[in-house]
Amino acid sequence: MTPLRPLLRTGAAALVLTLAAGCFAGGGSDQASDGRISVAMMQPPRSGLSPLSDDAFKLSRWSTAETLVQLDADGVAQPMLATSWQRTDDRTWTFDLRGDVTFHDGTPLTSKEVVASLQTAAQASPVPRILDGVELTVEAPDADTVVVKTAVADPLVPQRLSSPQLSILAPKAYTTKAVNPVGAGTGPFELVKVDGTSGATLDRYDDYWGEKAKASGIDARFVPDGTARAAALRTGDADVVESVPVGQVAQLDEDLVIEVPMPRTNTLYLNTTKGPFKDPTVRAAAREAIDRARLVKDVYEGRADEASGLLGPALPWAADLRSDPEYTQLLAQRAEPAKVDGVRITLGTFTDRAELPEVAVLLEQELEAAGFVVQQDVREYQFIEADALDGAFDAFILSRATVLDSGDPVAYMASDFGCDGGFNIAQLCNDDVDAALDRAAQVEPGAERQRLTMLAEAQVLGLDAAVPLLHERVIQGEAQGVSGVERDPRERDLIDADSSAGA
């Protein structure tokens, strides 16, 4: 199958280039000369850059707002505004604050400001998703210490506090109903201006507690059109570009394109409670029918990774643990594929991710070659989600983030495959799966939690409740001479103190 991505016609290309140049007027090489970095962001703010929304990730990617804790590549908590912490009992954690931090308005950081920020998040409506279902209270026994308590034992408290939605801001940010992060962060760059949904301006904060930023500032522009973002990189109007569309890569210098594995898996969920896929042998037949290499080649033009499980290369520890004897034993218990002939199934997916309808076309071909008769139902996500969650489809293709804000995949697996999971499209309810998820959830982050997480994956795959298809990559553009830009699978970091646009 030839991907449905025709090259731009000359006139359309010229229009896009004009628009891109307008977005970055005065940017690119001119900005590099004065040490500023121009960035083309994929999405405009949806909530005025409030840290209590998904806009928080923009603040994090610009290194303007910071959290108590940050995560390393393995999802292990590391110091940020807190220098150390300890678990004093099952429900209580004590954090020691960094002593030389000032907010961008000059206010010193103390426990009072930390408590105010975290309490605002905990009492927000809606609550930031990292705190969904978590009852959290915060106290300040002295100016340098913060005590966090949860209603039930929670080994992930430090990881939760790494979420950009729990950024610590100066008191000035909370003086109106909407949280305003302008001039209120602690990072190496100060947010000085927001131009609605057009862009934002950040300047280097010279009193930063850590390493002084190499760049003198960041000029961010919001460019939802992927063709325009690619054009901005190609013409030199942007130094860094978020999420270059796969279909635009061929028109770019390969040296400017960086592929980063994402913790996001395209998965075929199979309805385990009703319809043909209630039978595990029929689920096994669907699993055997799928050619992952073809999906990666024909739909993603080779810019994705074939899936061996639910968790992909963005979690580097996952692959090695699949050789664990207990893991392989669980997979060996899979049902043998049935021979199907004329079995009718409904296959759903959505249009919001451009590749998924193409994936559905190829899967229909492969499943019908195996003996299924497939009826597709493809809609916008907002119009199909409720039916998918209600089990209206025999099979559903979903692009799913496998690591939520805590940096840990157990919450995703519990949501998608636990009996009480809120996103259980497979309608799976299995005692062994629930027990495996519970065991993993009780262990503090580290090697043992990772091992138990993979055993839970094996339980799910052993039932063929889900067929992982591929792991997505994000394609990031970086102009020639740019250095020190973060290539973060979790898309929390982008420009930091070490980033430079070059000469």
UniProtKB/TrEMBL annotation:
Keywords: Signal. One of its GO terms (molecular function) is peptide transmembrane transporter activity. The keyword Transcription does not apply. Residues 1-25 form the signal peptide. Residues 481-503 are annotated as: Disordered. InterPro entries: SBP_5, SBP_5_dom. It comes from the Bacteria. Residues 78-422 form the Solute-binding protein family domain. Gene3D superfamilies: Dipeptide-binding Protein, Domain 3 (3.10.105.10), Periplasmic binding protein-like II (3.40.190.10). Residues 485-495 have a biased composition (Basic and acidic residues). The keyword Cell division does not apply. GO terms for biological process: peptide transport. This is ABC transporter substrate-binding protein. It comes from Aeromicrobium erythreum.
